[in-house]
Amino acid sequence: MKSTHPLMAFCAAAIIVPASAFADGLLSGGEWTIGAIAGYSSGFYKGEDSELGAAPLLSYSTDRLSIGFDGVTYRAIQTDRFEAALMLAPRLSPDFPDDTPLFDGLDRDSALDAGFSLTYSSDRFYVSGSMLHDISSKHEGYEIETRIGTTVQAGRVAIDAGMGARLRDSKLSNYLVGVSKDEATADRPAYDVGRTVEPFVSVSLAMPLTERTALVGSVEYSMLDREIENSPLVRKDNTYSVGFGLIYKF
Question: Class of 6-249 per CATH?
Fold first, then answer.
């Protein structure tokens, strides 16, 4: 289960992969990235259909600062093996189905999260961790993500494969799938979600077409925590998303 719209999350991955994959100069040195992204994501709320959509992509980056639809990242410390960054990221409100009576009266505002990330990289693998906390008082919770992965070159295609887990406290989990006593109805009983852990696996790739353009793609599969599965708002025990796009750097 993604904390933001699946296409927004894919936009972030679409930029990260080429930047690391083409460090030899094919796409390095560009400050702006524009593109178009298409994606497909499975729904997990009751009454929610799988979604096919598209979104534009626009970002600006320097050696230390990146600004895009997914937020702002400032890399405060950078060495050959280690990076520490500060992050500011929007958290879009849950995409409850509009035409399902079960969700009538449920109201969640989009939030703004702030936090940091740490990454260690070797020649063969990397390990990263991040923490984001609500600073807008919309859910007042936090999320911790850990990931281990590797980046390999298969001909012209750069592939990033990894696995990890996202831990969310009860406040953020309730924001996503909880039902308060004031929101309870005959068909929607109150449900208090505890702390949740969501394991995931993902693969991203990038293939340069020219010195400034590339095709990018991303796939992610997540297993939902039992606390989330038992929510009266949820119908599945897993989610997945697939995306692809074309980007241009200048």
Answer: mainly beta
Please state, in angstroms and rounded to a whole number, the distance separating the CA atoms of residues 217 and 202: 11
pLDDT in tens, 26-61: 444 458 899 998 988 888 899 887 778 888 888 898
* Token pair for 113: 């999260």
Closest to 179 (Cα-Cα) out of 99, 71, 235, 105: 105
Element of type H or E holding 202: strand 196-208
Whole-prediction pTM: 0.87
Nearest to 108 by CA among 174, 162, 23: 174
Domain boundaries, the chain: 6-249
Element (H, E) at 26: none
**Helices in the chain by DSSP H: which ranges?**
6-21, 170-177, 226-229
- Comparing 47-61, 115-129, 158-172, 234-248, the range with the smallest average pLDDT is 47-61
